[in-house]
Each structure stands twice: as C-alpha cells, then as structure tokens.
C-alpha cells in the first residue's frame, strides 16, 4: 500500500512499468466487473494510460467475431473498432445489458463493414496502379528501377551474403561500386523475399514480374497503414477516408505504378507504418508497440534515405509535446526505445553504418533524447519533493543544467565540425536552404526531382487535398491530442519539404491524405448529424446511434470517437488534481459538453454541403484515375505519341541497348551521361563509366568535361577511361525534350565545377544555351553537339531541331575521332565508337598534297582513306 | 608454289587480324613493283639476297593493269616493294589509298624514291610521316661528305655513315663502310614518334637542285635531313623509305667507297650490309616480339582468380619471345615492367627473368578496390611494341573477412558486457528486492 501511494505521486515513473500490471489488471476486469472499479480508480495513472484500451479489453470476450477477424487480418488494432462507445456505455454497462448488446452488435457489424471497405481500398490501390501494365507492358520503368531490378536479380541468383558483399565491376569503371555497402537493401530484400516465398509455393513468377508488382502491393499496404495511423489520430471514419484518399493520391501513384520498382514503393508504407506505431505507442504507452516501432523504423532505414525525415519529425514532435506541457510517461516510452533501438538497428544497415551517430541529420534525435530524460528527471524530483524544496532544487538544477547544456552544445558543435561531411550532407543542406544546391552542388541541382515544384504540380499531385488540408488542421485542433498534434506537425514539415524538392511531394502525400481524411470525415460527421437531427422520423436521438450504424457506419462511429478522444486530454489536464470521487462526477460534464457541441446546421445547407463534398470527392477520384491512366503510367523507356494517323511507339531505348548487347564485346565500356548508366548496365549488360548513383562527382565531371570538350580532347579523356562506345540521346528529330542537348548545361556546369578549363560563358550566347546559328564556336565544336547533330541535316535537308524549334548552327561536319556505329529508328539514341589511335602519323607536308590535288582528289573521293 | 602458298595463307586467315601470323611473323610473299624490268637486273643482288632468305618475289610493272594487292578481301602478299619512283598512277586496282590500307592491315612496305619522284610516291611517303623535299628537282648535296670518285661530280653521291644506333634495326654487326646514297632527302616531324631516321645526312648536307644556282636558302639542311627512314606503325607494320633507289643497286653494292676527307678507302661500300640488315628488320626477321602465357594468381595457388581482394599477394608472369626469322627465341632483357593500373599505376614492378623468356614478379595488391589492369607497355627502339593489358577487379573485404575481435577494442567489449550484466542485476534487484 505504501508503494502504491508512492506510485500515484510519481506519475512518470510508474508508467514505465505500466504494461506488466496493466495486463494482469485486464484479466481481473474481465473476470468480475465488481472488482474492476475500485481497482481502476485506485490507480489513476493506469486509468489514464489504459483509458482507451481498457474498455476494449472488457469488450473482448463478448465481441468474439471482431477480434478473431482482427487476428486473421493482422489488425492489431481492431479491438479499438469496438472500443469507442465503451467509455459511454461503461458506467451503465453493469446496470443495463440490453442497450449494451445492441451497441455490440452494431460495432460488430461496423467492424465487418470497415474490414470490407479496407479490403476494397486495398484492391483499389493495387488495381489503379495497373494502368501501366495494361496500356504498355509489364516492364520495369525509368532509371533507378532498372538498377534495383538488376540488384534483385543478383540477389535471387546468388543469395543474400553475396549480395551483401557484392562488388560491382561493371559500373563506375574503373572505380567499381560496392553495391552491398552503398544501397538501401530494403526494397531488394522485400522483393527477393517475395520471390523466394512464391517459389517455395511453386509459383514460378519471374524476378521481373515480382519487381513490377511490388510497388502496387505495397501501396495497398500503405493505404492500410494510413487507415491505422489516422484511426489513432481521429478514429475509424477518418481512417477509412484517409486510406481511400491515399490509395489513389496521384503523387504516390507517380512513384508506385506497376513497374516503378523504386525504394519509395516500399518506403512510404514503412514511413506511415512507423508513424502509426509511434502514435500507437504514444496512445497506449506499451513497450510492445515501442519495440515494433523500432523494428518498423529499421525497415524504413533499410528502404530509403528518407528515414531521416522520421528521425527528425518524431523528435520535433516530442519536443513540441514537452514544450506544450504534454510530457507523459507514454511519450517517454514512445520515444526513448525508438532512439536507442532504432539507432542501433540503423547502424546495422551497411549504407548507414556510423552515419547513424555521426551525421547531423541524427543529432536532433539525440538532443531530444537528452532533453526528455532531463524532463523526466524533473517530473520525478517534483514528485518526491515538496513544492518549496522543488523550487530550490529547480534553481539548483537550472544553474547546473545550463552549465551542462553549454558543455553539451560545445561538444555537439565540435562533433558537427569534425564529422566527415561537416555535419550535413548536401541533400539535407539543400532541404534547409533551398538555394544551397543550385549554388554549390550542381550535381544535386541537375536532378529534375530535386527541383522545387511548381504550383500546378501541387494541383496535379494532391489535387483537392490541397484545399482540404487546412480544414484538416483545424479539425486536429478541436480537440488537440498528442496524436493530432503529430498530424499537424507532419503536414507542416512535409509541406515545407515538398516546397524544396519535388521528390518530397511523396512525403507530403500521406500527410495530406490523413488530414484531408480527417477533414472530410469531420465534415460529413457534422453535416449528416445536422440532417439526422432535423429529420422528423429520427427525432428520438437516443436511438440514433444505434439505428444509424447500420446504414452509415463510419460517421456515427466517428462522432463518438471524437467525443471520446476529446475527453482524453481533459482527463490528462485534471489528472493530478483528480481524486477517486471525481471520476463519477466527470461523466455528466462530458455528456453535457457533447450535447452542447451538437449544434446543428440548417437542413438545406447541410444537404447541399454534403452534395458538394461528394462532388468534390468525385472530382478527386476522376482526377486520380486520369492521372494514373494518362500522366503517370508511361514507363519512359517506351514512349508513345498520338497523332492523326494513330499511335506512334518509340522504342528506341531498348533498340539501342539491344544493339549494344548484341554487337559489342562483353567487356566494352560505354560512356554516356549518367542518366543512362543504370539502364545500360541492366539492359545492355555493358560496363559504364558513370551511372545514376551519383556518388563520385569527379568521375561524372570527367564525363561532363569530355562531352563539352572538342572532339580530340574528348577522345583523349574517353580513351584514358578505356571507353569504346559513346551513347548520346538525341530528341531533335522526334521532339523528345529530355535529351542530352537539354541536359547539356549540367554537363558543362558539373564538368566546369571540377575542371576549370570548361567555362560556362563559352557556351552561352546572351546567357542562353543556343544551338542555332547564334551559337558560340565552343558550343558548335563540343562533342555533345557533334554527336547529337552528326548527319542530322540528312534527315530533312534543313536540320530543323524539333525540341529547340530552330535550325541548327552547323550542319555539315565530319567526325575525326569518332565514328557512328548505330542510330536508332527515330534517332533518339545514337551510338558512336571511338576510332583507334592512328596507325601512322601523317607528315606535315601539305603543299605537296595541294600541288597534287588534281591527281589525288579523285582517288580520295573514291576510296575512304583511313585518316590514321 | 604460289597456289600452295595461297592455300596456306587461307588456312591462316582466321589468325590474320594483323596479317603477319603470330606464329611466323616474317613475310613470305613480296610484290615488287618496278618502273621497268631493267631494275630487276640492275638490283639483282638485293633481290637475290631476299630470295635466298626465302622470300617469294613477284615482279610486276607498276602500271601493269593486272596487278592487285588483294582478292576477295584477302591480301595476296605480305609485303610490297615500290621500286617505281616515277610512277604517276599504278595499274590495276592499286592506288595510294590501297597501299596505305595494305600497310594499315599490317603489311610491310619498302619505298624507294629518286630525284623527280612522282607525286604518288611522295604522297605515300607523306602519309607515312616522311616529307620529301618539295622541290622535285632537288637532290641531296654534300660538299664535304661526298663520296670520292673518279669524276669530280656535283657532290650528289654521298658517302654517309651516320647510322641510327640500334642493333635491332641494323644488326649487331657494325656497318663496315659508309653507305653510298644518291637521291632526295626528306624531313621528319620531330613529334612523330613512329618514324625513325636510320641514315641521316651529315651536318654539311643540304637539299637543292645541283644544276641551278641557289636563289633561296634550302629548306632541308644538315642533320635534320634524313636520307633513309623507317616507320613502325602502331600495328607493327614496318615501312622503309629511302630517298635513293640506286642505293639498292648492284652498282652501289659493289662500288668501292671513300668518303671525302677520310683517308680510308673501303673496297666495298656498306650498302649491301646496310640494306640487307634493314630489310631483315622491315620484313620482321628481327626485332619482333611476342608475349604469351600471361598468368597471374594468388601466391600459393595455380588458377587465375576472377577477382582479387585488397592486400592479396599475387604472382604475375609472362613469357616474351623474339622472332629470329625461323624460330621464336627467348627474349632477354632486364627492363620489362608490369603496372597494376587503375587510371594511374598503383604498382610498378620490374619483372625478373630466367633468361629463357620467362618473366615474373610478385607483389601485394594495393589497399584500393576497383577494376585494375595488369599492364605491360614495352616499347624499345626497333622492337615491336608490346602492349598487354588484362583486366582484373579488386574487391574489398567481405563482411566476414575482418577480424572478429580487435585487441584494441577489448575495453569496449568489457564495457558493453559489464553494462549488460549490471543492467540485469539492477533489474533483478529493483524488481524483486522489496
């Protein structure tokens, strides 16, 4: 008894141990109701932490269909579907069984319906991403997925240890690349596991098929994870709405259509699921979920470099909670294990390794880790000291703490200064200072997905969600809980980051879906309630919930849920002053408040508003389907265009890669701009100099310099790298805009950044890159121009470039050090071979030639003289 | 005979990427193009010498319409001798480009020019890096290094003994007497590394028309002027270019020679020896190297690995032979080096030899991973260049190849385990000790 009294006074300490006594408590409750009440009230902190799950546990034995369903589904949360009404029915439960049974049936029905809806959402998420397969074919898309595909092939063929130790000598020649140590293995391992699993079931799918369909499968998972997360924040209704929104949000579709086999495909699921587990831990204070959270974080670290978003967002949320006086032991449990276990696990991933403790992206988490311990200590001391003593101690601690903080800050600054990347990596720095990359690191700025997005791209990618987000934020503030605070913080940060880098729109999408889901569900909630209350037949509102559940399951559930989540903070605020007697007293005010909140809107306005909302959502669905079908399904290795005479297919890339694989030696080296590196290694199986893993700026700059140098200098650079073939992408004939000439400015900038003899102004006329007759001589003589436009005039006689919409400046020229070996059907890929060094060196006697020109020119025309 | 040879030749076709077969690099069938058949007899010593060395000479007039170098894409000859300085246009399908293609596919060429050499011959020479004097009537004149003869001429007959110092090109035996030369001089581009001056003019020589007065300073003077040059193309085709056709003639071979200002009079000019040795070099009877059996493996193993690990110890060996005209003889030198190369050499080692053509060394792979090459770049004056490169990747340690326990880290292990034990005890005490 003595100990119990002690516990009640030191709230935070007790919470650490809460899971163990909590479970025993649950069983005792389920055995006999009469004993539960004293027990419950004798331990106020327990009531607090268990206020949400405790009634659920009570409902467990009775509501057998639902949990069983849950266990088969893997919904750890499903009891909560039944839980919302519990706080209200709880006091009356023992007294009257009839309404209780009614509620239970309704809840059972609701959870089955919710399950079916979720199943349909999963199907929707999967099937909306199949447009690429239906419209094109089942192929891997774009650039990075080809690398992942190649790695997966290696993994399935050679096993995990060889994958881990894979030194790839076919890229970055002659440096090579340690694939095992530089790749985020999550996606590959996931697909590999899937492949092995299917093969152990004797389903002989090819690696490519598994890779193509990994992303759609995981987007179904991601929408379920969104449901779970949003349910933690605002209840089932919001969860289902958010899941449905996420299943078809265009931003996410753009990265996860079938064939888009990239890290983001699984990482978004991991991201949302990690957030869900964090919020779940925060709501329950369960160490079990905290451990799961660390594991989920580990999976995220394995999958994507974007894990730094998690390890910065969660500390920020914790800090915000502490600052706003929301510190609780649940917060501690949610955070401390994540930092310790998560960091340890993250350090196990080879590509992260010591970065997990040495780069500044992770420092925020350690700082907050320290802070939360200080705060926990303060709460502990506050609990054992009298207020007077506490003030004295506070003064003492603050003065000492300041000194310690200063020392810590000094240590951190020293660490930052001495860490290998001067603290921040370039990509992260460009997040904080959006202009950083374009100023200092052209290689980061050159990637289109690292550019800031335009306004239309927001509309394109998240569509009406952009307008629903503010409403969602407001909904999160009424009432504000730890979880909804997290949602608000998440959206704010991701909006900022998406404004920096178009790629991070992907992180914004789930946040936008969650908040829009909350907004929509709350709005429907308000409007339907208004309608309901004014319908004459439903005037008896004591039965409304029960009746309505059958027809409109989501909304009523949600209504009650919000009300319930509303009283959670209320309870917390009063927790220290609350005594045993106060608990029964608390109920009437809550009820009263609910009644007060149920202010009704005019009937007509509500109907119109509901119709408008439905229209809005319908518009969103139409847009999403359009985006999935038209905008984001193109695999980008096969292009199509519609014209008057039908569909044109441009399959030049594969044509060129097939040519390379059939007509060149296995060990030949192919140089191209780094965009095509992954595809060349994966599709043509030839060694490349640089590829899309832009880890070595100097090497890329070398290739950029070669491309922007005159022919001879370029030949020498390429020859020194043992290059045999040079591949350029040229869109001038068919009007394919992302060709090498349009990327040329980055070659110049990146090349010039390392080799100062390449000066950008030499290529510019009036500050512009031009290839028409106004172009500078340097431009017209550089290798990229020559390789792109060699023999171009033979196509139409005018050499009209359809991308730049101009006639080119120099139409007739010969190549002396390169020879054209292959040009694809639409001239989109042109492959040149380096001529071998001259066999003989000519004399310099030019005059004798001119003297004899009459006799020799005729011969020269007839036979192709070897100029070497 | 020639049919048999053709059959043999066709049998060797698969090996003939650079024409001289790897097994017998010496030429066998030689086409000799002449201005007129008189040269066949006036230069018979030279030709007979070649025949006695086993060459099969095919004499044709340069404007013979039936001549051709190749048939059905295969070359009919291994070498070509152009003793037709005045020809303006070859007969048949041959032109300058065809001859240069002949060289570029690895065949050898001897070109002899003369005063008033044709533009065609000059063009071929220019393409090989030899610039004859542009003045078509110019001859090399040397008023101090001329050959003393019965008639005091215009000093265009030169006795030259300024040979290249290379045993490989000119044979190990010293050229006994000065070489008689009468013809035109040429200049070489000093930056051209492929062409060598075999016989240079003396410092007092110059190139001008002896019949007319000098109106302007001669363009070619002194030692920068070359009389006989050889070219070894990158594909190891060899070309001999001489400014004098009569240098090869019986008359010059047999003539006695006394250099002006020199008291010694040689009974026989050095021409025969000079030309014979030179032709041996040009026709690959000397100075032709081959490298075979490039092997590398880890120390203590025999098989060649597909990949090395950093800090592996490896052994590298190669066998180098020189063609003696009949057999492959071991090549003996102490300056063959191997590079372990990735953009720049990380290891550069001189190979040891057992004097039987076997070269070997052992070294440790540097602590750098990447795609390396074993490179042997052996270029010596007169020898064919050896350029061997063999690609081999070097990988870092595997995850389980590191030391499991590092002695320096024992304090940390201790700290970790004592922490674990302490935590366990603390937990036990805290939970169960009331």
From TrEMBL, chain A:
Residues 667-726 form the STT3/PglB/AglB core domain. Its EC number is 2.4.99.18. Its main location: endoplasmic reticulum. Residues 558-588 have a biased composition (Basic and acidic residues). Residues 555-588, 839-868 are annotated as: Disordered. The keyword Magnesium applies. Keywords: Endoplasmic reticulum, Glycoprotein, Glycosyltransferase, Magnesium, Manganese, Membrane, Metal-binding, Transferase, Transmembrane, Transmembrane helix. One of its GO terms (cellular component) is endoplasmic reticulum membrane. It is a multi-pass membrane protein. The keyword Cell membrane does not apply. Pathway: Protein modification; protein glycosylation. It is found in: Endoplasmic reticulum membrane. It is an enzyme of class 2 (transferase). It holds the Pfam family STT3-PglB_core. It comes from the Eukaryota. Residues 839-850, 858-868 have a biased composition (Basic residues). Residues 112-515 form the Oligosaccharyl transferase STT3 N-terminal domain. Belongs to the STT3 family. This is dolichyl-diphosphooligosaccharide--protein glycotransferase. It comes from Arachis hypogaea (Peanut).
From TrEMBL, chain B:
Pfam families: OST48_MD, OST48_N. It comes from the Eukaryota. The chain crosses the membrane at residues 410-432. It is a single-pass type I membrane protein. Residues 1-19 form the signal peptide. Keywords: Endoplasmic reticulum, Membrane, Signal, Transmembrane, Transmembrane helix. One of its GO terms (biological process) is protein N-linked glycosylation via asparagine. Its main location: endoplasmic reticulum. InterPro entries: DDOST_48_kDa_subunit (IPR005013), OST48_MD (IPR055459), OST48_N (IPR055457). Residues 29-282 form the OST48 N-terminal domain. Residues 296-434 form the OST48 middle domain. One of its GO terms (cellular component) is oligosaccharyltransferase complex. It is found in: Endoplasmic reticulum membrane; Membrane. Pathway: Protein modification; protein glycosylation. Belongs to the DDOST 48 kDa subunit family. Subunit of the oligosaccharyl transferase (OST) complex that catalyzes the initial transfer of a defined glycan (Glc(3)Man(9)GlcNAc(2) in eukaryotes) from the lipid carrier dolichol-pyrophosphate to an asparagine residue within an Asn-X-Ser/Thr consensus motif in nascent polypeptide chains, the first step in protein N-glycosylation. N-glycosylation occurs cotranslationally and the complex associates with the Sec61 complex at the channel-forming translocon complex that mediates protein translocation across the endoplasmic reticulum (ER). Component of the oligosaccharyltransferase (OST) complex. This is Dolichyl-diphosphooligosaccharide--protein glycosyltransferase 48 kDa subunit.
């Amino acid at each position: 008894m003595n100990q119990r009294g002690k516990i009640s006074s030191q709230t935070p300490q007790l919470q650490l141990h809460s899971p163990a006594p909590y479970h025993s408590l649950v069983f005792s409750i389920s055995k006999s109701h009469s004993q539960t009440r004293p027990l419950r009230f004798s331990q106020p902190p327990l009531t607090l932490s268990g206020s949400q799950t405790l009634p659920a546990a009570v409902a467990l034995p009775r509501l057998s269909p639902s949990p069983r369903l849950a266990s088969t589904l893997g919904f750890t949360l499903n009891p909560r579907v039944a839980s919302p009404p519990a706080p209200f029915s709880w006091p009356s439960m023992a007294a009257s069984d009839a309404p209780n049974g009614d509620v239970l049936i309704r809840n059972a029905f609701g959870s089955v319906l919710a399950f079916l809806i979720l199943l349909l959402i999963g199907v929707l998420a999967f099937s909306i991403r199949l447009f690429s397969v239906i419209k094109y074919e089942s192929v891997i898309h774009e650039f990075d997925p080809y690398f992942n595909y190649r790695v997966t092939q290696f993994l399935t063929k050679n096993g995990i240890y060889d994958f881990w130790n894979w030194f790839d000598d076919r890229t970055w020649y002659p440096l090579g690349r340690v694939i095992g140590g530089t790749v985020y293995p999550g996606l590959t391992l996931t697909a590999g596991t899937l492949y092995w699993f299917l093969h152990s079931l004797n389903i002989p799918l090819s690696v490519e098929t598994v890779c193509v369909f990994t992303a759609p499968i995981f987007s179904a998972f991601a929408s379920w994870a969104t449901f779970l997360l949003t349910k933690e924040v605002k209840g089932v209704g919001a969860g289902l709405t958010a899941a449905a929104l996420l299943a078809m949000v265009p931003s996410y579709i753009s990265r996860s259509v079938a064939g888009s086999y990239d890290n983001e495909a699984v990482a978004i699921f991991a991201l949302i699921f990690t957030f869900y587990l964090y919020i779940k831990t925060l709501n329950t204070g369960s160490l079990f979920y905290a451990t799961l959270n660390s594991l989920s974080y580990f999976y995220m670290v394995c999958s994507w470099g974007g894990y730094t978003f998690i390890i910065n967002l969660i500390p920020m949320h914790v800090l915000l909670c502490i600052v706003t006086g929301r510190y609780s032991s649940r917060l501690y449990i949610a955070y401390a294990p994540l930092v310790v276990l998560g960091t340890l696990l993250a350090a196990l991933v080879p590509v992260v390794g010591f970065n997990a403790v040495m780069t500044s992206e992770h420092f925020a988490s350690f700082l907050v880790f320290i802070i939360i311990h200080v705060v926990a200590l303060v709460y502990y001391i506050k609990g054992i000291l009298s207020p007077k003593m506490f003030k004295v101690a506070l003064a003492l601690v603050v003065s000492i703490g300041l000194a310690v903080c200063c020392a810590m800050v000094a240590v951190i600054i020293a660490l930052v200064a001495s860490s290998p990347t001067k603290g921040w990596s370039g990509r992260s720095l460009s997040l904080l200072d959006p202009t950083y990359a374009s100023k200092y690191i052209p290689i980061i700025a050159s990637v289109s997905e690292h550019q800031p997005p335009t306004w239309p791209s927001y509309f394109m990618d998240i569509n009406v969600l952009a307008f629903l987000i503010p409403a969602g934020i407001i909904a999160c503030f009424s009432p504000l809980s730890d979880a909804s605070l997290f949602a608000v913080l998440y959206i704010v940060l991701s909006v900022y980051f998406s404004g920096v880098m178009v790629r991070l729109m992907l992180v914004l999408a789930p946040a936008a879906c969650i908040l829009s889901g909350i907004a929509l569900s709350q709005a429907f909630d308000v409007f339907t309630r208004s309608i309901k209350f004014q319908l004459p037949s439903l005037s008896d509102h004591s039965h409304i919930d029960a009746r309505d559940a059958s027809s409109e399951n989501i909304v009523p559930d949600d209504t009650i849920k919000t009300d319930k989540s509303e009283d959670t903070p209320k309870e917390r605020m009063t927790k220290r002053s609350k005594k045993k007697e106060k608990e029964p007293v608390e109920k009437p005010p809550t009820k009263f408040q609910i009644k007060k909140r149920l202010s009704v809107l005019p009937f007509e306005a509500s109907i119109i508003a509901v119709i408008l909302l439905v229209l809005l959502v319908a518009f969103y669905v139409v847009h999403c389907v359009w985006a999935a079908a038209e905008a984001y399904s193109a695999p980008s290795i096969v292009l199509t265009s519609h014209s008057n005479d039908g569909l044109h297919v441009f399959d030049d890339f594969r044509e060129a890669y097939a040519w390379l694989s059939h007509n060149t030696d296995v060990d030949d080296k192919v140089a191209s701009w780094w965009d095509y590196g992954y595809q060349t290694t994966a599709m043509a199986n030839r060694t490349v100099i640089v590829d899309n893993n832009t880890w070595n700026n100097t090497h890329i700059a070398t290739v950029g310099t070669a491309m922007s140098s005159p022919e001879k200098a370029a030949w020498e650079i390429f020859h020194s790298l043992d290059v045999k073939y040079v591949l350029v992408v040229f869109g001038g004939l068919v009007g394919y805009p992302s060709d090498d000439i349009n990327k040329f400015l980055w070659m110049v900038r990146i090349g010039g950044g390392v080799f100062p003899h390449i000066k950008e102004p030499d290529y510019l006329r009036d500050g512009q890159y031009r290839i028409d007759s106004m172009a500078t001589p340097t431009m017209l003589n550089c290798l990229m121009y020559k390789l792109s436009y060699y023999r171009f005039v033979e196509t139409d006689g005018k050499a009209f470039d359809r991308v730049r919409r101009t006639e080119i400046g120099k139409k007739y020229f010969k190549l002396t050090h390169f020879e054209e070996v292959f040009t694809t059907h639409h001239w989109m890929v042109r492959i040149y071979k380096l001529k071998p060094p001259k066999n003989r060196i000519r004399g310099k006697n030019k005059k004798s030639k001119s003297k004899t020109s009459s006799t020799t020119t005729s011969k020269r025309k007839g036979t192709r003289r070897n100029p070497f | 005979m020639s049919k048999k040879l053709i059959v043999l030749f066709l049998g060797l076709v698969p090996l003939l990427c650079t024409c001289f077969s790897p097994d017998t690099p010496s030429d066998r069938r030689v086409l000799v193009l002449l201005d007129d058949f008189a040269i066949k007899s006036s230069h018979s010593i030279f030709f007979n010498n070649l025949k006695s060395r086993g060459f099969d000479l095919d004499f044709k007039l340069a404007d013979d319409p039936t001549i051709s170098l190749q048939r059905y894409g295969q070359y009919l000859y291994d070498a070509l001798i152009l003793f037709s300085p005045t020809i303006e246009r070859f007969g048949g399908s041959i032109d300058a480009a065809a001859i240069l293609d002949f060289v570029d596919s690895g065949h050898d060429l001897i070109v002899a020019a003369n005063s008033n050499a044709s533009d065609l011959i000059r063009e071929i020479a220019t393409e090989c890096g030899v610039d004859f004097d542009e003045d078509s009537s110019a001859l090399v004149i040397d008023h101090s290094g001329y050959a003393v003869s019965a008639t005091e001429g215009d000093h265009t007959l030169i006795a030259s003994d300024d040979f290249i110092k290379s045993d490989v090109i000119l044979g190990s035996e010293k050229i006994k007497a000065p070489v008689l030369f009468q013809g035109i001089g040429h200049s070489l581009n000093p930056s051209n590394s492929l062409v060598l001056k075999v016989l240079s003019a003396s410092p007092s020589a110059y190139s001008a028309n002896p019949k007319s007065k000098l109106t302007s300073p001669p363009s070619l003077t002194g030692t920068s002027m070359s009389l006989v040059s050889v070219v070894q193309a990158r594909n190891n085709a060899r070309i001999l270019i001489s400014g004098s056709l009569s240098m090869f003639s019986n008359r010059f071979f047999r003539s006695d020679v006394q250099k002006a200002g020199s008291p010694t009079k040689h009974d026989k000019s050095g021409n025969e020896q000079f030309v014979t040795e030179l032709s041996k070099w040009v026709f690959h009877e000397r100075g032709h190297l081959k490298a075979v059996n490039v092997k590398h493996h880890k120390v203590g193993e025999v098989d060649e690995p597909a990949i090395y690990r950093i800090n592996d110890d490896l052994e590298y060996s190669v066998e180098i032979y020189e063609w003696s005209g009949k057999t492959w003889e071991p090549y003996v030198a102490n300056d063959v080096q191997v590079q372990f190369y990735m953009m720049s050499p990380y290891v550069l080692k001189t190979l040891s030899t057992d004097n039987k053509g076997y070269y070997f060394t052992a070294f440790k792979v540097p602590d750098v991973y990447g795609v390396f090459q074993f490179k042997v770049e052996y270029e010596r004056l007169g020898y064919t260049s050896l350029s061997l490169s063999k690609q081999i990747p070097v990988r870092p340690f595997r995850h389980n190849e590191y030391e499991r326990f590092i002695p320096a880290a024992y304090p940390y292990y201790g700290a970790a385990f004592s922490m674990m034990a302490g935590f366990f005890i603390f937990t036990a005490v805290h939970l169960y000790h009331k």
